[in-house]
Amino acid sequence: MKRFIALLLFCLAAPAAHAQKFDALAKTPPMGWNSWNKFQCNVSEQLIRETADAMVSSGMQAAGYQFINIDDCWHGARDSLGFIHPDAARFPSGMKALADYVHAKGLKLGIYSDAGSKTCGGRPGSRGYEYQDALMYAKWGIDYLKYDWCSTDSLHAPGAYLTMRDALAKAGRPIVFSLCEWGTSQPWKWAANVGHLWRTTGDITACFDCIADHGTWKAFGVMQILDMQQGLRVYAGPGHWNDPDMLEVGNGLAPNEDRAHFAMWSMLAAPLIAGNDLRSMPPSVRSVLTNRDAIAVNQDSLGVQGFRYAVRDSVEIWFKPLTGGDWALTFLNRATSPRPVSFDWVHEPVADTLSKRDAQFATTRYQLRNLWTQQNAGSTARPLAATVPARDVLMLRLRKS
Ligand code: GLA
Question: Which residues are catalytic?
Answer without folding.
Answer: 148, 203
